[in-house]
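[SOLVED] Need 3D model of a two-part complex

Original post:
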Amino acid sequence: MAGPAVVDRAAEAAAGAARAFGESSAASRAELLEGIAAGLEAERAALVATAMAETNLPEARLQGEIDRTAYQLRAFARLVRSGRHVRAIVEHPDPDYPLGEAPDLRLMLHPVGPVAVFAASNFPFAFSVAGGDTAAALAAGCPVVLKAHPAHPELSRATAAIVHRAAAEAGAPEGVFALIEGQSEGVALVEHPAMRAAAFTGSLQGGRALFDIAARRASPIPFYGELGSVNPVFVTAEAARDRVDEIARGFVGSLALGTGQFCTKPGIVFAPAGTGFADRAAAAIDAVAPGRMLSERILEGYLERGDVFSGVAGVEVVRPGTESDGAVTPALFRTDAATFLAHSERLSEERFGPSGLVVEYDDETQLAPLASGIAASLTWTVHATAPGDGGLDTILAEGRERSGRIIFNGWPTGVTVSPAMMHGGPYPATTASLHTSVGTTAIGRFLRPVSYQGFPDELLPPELAEANPLAVPRETDLSRESR
Amino acid sequence: MAGPAVVDRAAEAAAGAARAFGESSAASRAELLEGIAAGLEAERAALVATAMAETNLPEARLQGEIDRTAYQLRAFARLVRSGRHVRAIVEHPDPDYPLGEAPDLRLMLHPVGPVAVFAASNFPFAFSVAGGDTAAALAAGCPVVLKAHPAHPELSRATAAIVHRAAAEAGAPEGVFALIEGQSEGVALVEHPAMRAAAFTGSLQGGRALFDIAARRASPIPFYGELGSVNPVFVTAEAARDRVDEIARGFVGSLALGTGQFCTKPGIVFAPAGTGFADRAAAAIDAVAPGRMLSERILEGYLERGDVFSGVAGVEVVRPGTESDGAVTPALFRTDAATFLAHSERLSEERFGPSGLVVEYDDETQLAPLASGIAASLTWTVHATAPGDGGLDTILAEGRERSGRIIFNGWPTGVTVSPAMMHGGPYPATTASLHTSVGTTAIGRFLRPVSYQGFPDELLPPELAEANPLAVPRETDLSRESR
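Solution:
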């Protein structure tokens, strides 16, 4: 019973803080976010040391991840100071509305209430305790109950202490943030009636289980789950002809980055047969130094999943990948279009870690069935020379329908924190394909519209008051446009 | 097997049309919407006659509803012509991005794919075959498979014929629209793998069942259900002192409008005790002419649900409502704050039809528990004199958290079709509280973001091309702002 009581306390405290925090000024929320960013930077050395011990990640990567996390927090602070996130719309009373009287109507977004955030293993800062989901929810004005990832418990507690301190300094209400730990506690959190939304980054299996729980509640809540993604790469015949070696090396570089432990790792590449793509990729793999996985459990899962590819008749093991003292080298598999199409569901499953599959196609007519046979993904990468490349239109059309981001002559790893970023995609890439979880538009998951009809000016939120005292961007009297 | 085969055909045809329709020009989609509007107006007399025979609704109401439906279609046509709905964001390569190179990133919204729309009984035009959900989905570029409501089958078929004709004239692809009928067919539609989203207006029970089906799919889809709503009204002591009679009459007018068959019918009013509110409302009810319900089945459901209120000890029947030859007069019940709080869940359930409950409170300290005890709703109405009225702050704060639209000194019926409208709210009002189903922003349910990274200009959609040839509104280089 210890678990659920902790969850109850955290969720009830979040519910108790929700109104005051939701009504707090944008400036005070920006200060909170900036305070967390400053706290991370101030304790950088200790945090990195703890993270290195718990995650096997190298120092330079962790230093960069603190930079990114601080940047995210400050980007959300800038956003809420601008007021753009409330998407204010003002429609004055309209005498020309053809369906009778149109009253004064003003709309803005308000926080949804307490949010459950599940931290990820592979970004101990940027998708963890003070990561993007926490930043987005706090920016929106939603209290956060954070389920820590068991792969880095001490770092989670140290980061939570920074958030608590920043919250106190910014005058945020008690209960605005809490850290909980444990799998059953996470389930109880999603089930708790006080929670209004949940955000998750992790495995397909775990994410789907929590999604189902969120949907089965007496009062269902949105579950923003970023699950598995195989992130296909398509190489046109023209591109292979021009620079097959460069593309093969780039593929391996992206595949092996961070020992393959990124959501956007390219797991499958469709390359023209007879261009030597797989051999060149294998040569590149032979130059990759072994890397350690984030945890023993993740390493075990990775090694077990090697069978997914090698167990399919018609899939050749180009490089099995080695494991020595916990460090692995990348694995590479190769197959043909017919084999892929016959087993596309199994071969489209993400293998978390440095493992890739080369699917060799014979001609561009195979690209349409291949592209539509692969599972929807976060990203969709194409290497081409020009708009006229064979099959390119099909690849791009499938990518628009089956992914959230299409990369042209680049690689999917290295996700820019930008208002134009879409880190999401149709299921199974995510459980909520209308939203990104990276970049400032990720705040939209935690805001819901409320319309004010016929209000006296002094009772309107300042964002909607006639004089616009906060000078927020607003759309005004759109409905008159070109009537 | 007849049912599912029809559904399969319609869903597969929609899937087959999705890409061509999604990539069709905004202008051609606007023409389709305008063609449907013109078709409705051209066949107005015949449509109204069919609707009168099937729905018991009076001619003037149906004429007005055609006006509204045509207005909605044209409002969406204007929106897609403007290009505002794609919410284009352009971020040029950023040399000053502090986390390394920021590539060229451009984001816009694309259609989600085939949409299942469930027509409602109570708006045979505006929330039916060519109603708001259909207009929003077609405007977004999504094919629609429409499940007709059994209360007006002939009208549904006649309207579908108009949509088919307009689609052919606008050159839309085959399969862009289909009408299906039958309850099991509706279930099969939500289960069909080709469908990418569903929109529904109807009962809590039916909507929740379909929501559960949508969530249980192998590949879950968003289910935008507008379910039950009790639409509370709060009268401050000051307002009652000034104009209790006017408010009581207004309440009955809104309650009885359309024989109480609106989603936004005010079902509960919290009025100060000792002001004679219930007696004045009863007097107003005595002047209301009997009205016919939409169908025999809806009438039966309405009469059965009378027990929900009268069966609770402490609830007084002020007016039982009469039924004669299928026509009903409004029913009115009265109770006190303690009784309401003890039975708030039962008394917060919507009773679809002209039935209302007056909850008399003794002083403003009771308003907080009353307001937080009532189920979340589409609307939240307050009658007050001034910002200082007792309990007003609490009522408004609860309304922000527990409804989608707050009306000040007005009534919730009569929903304006406006970009600032929010017709939605937390569960059980809807299953997706981040979205409206009325007004042009309803298009957001059927669009998802796609990001283009490092694209050559000639391969970008025109909305994102550097020269902006369609002159769509765009946000550009936001991330530089006040860095």
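Edit: Chain A touches chain B through 91 residues (CB under 8 Å).
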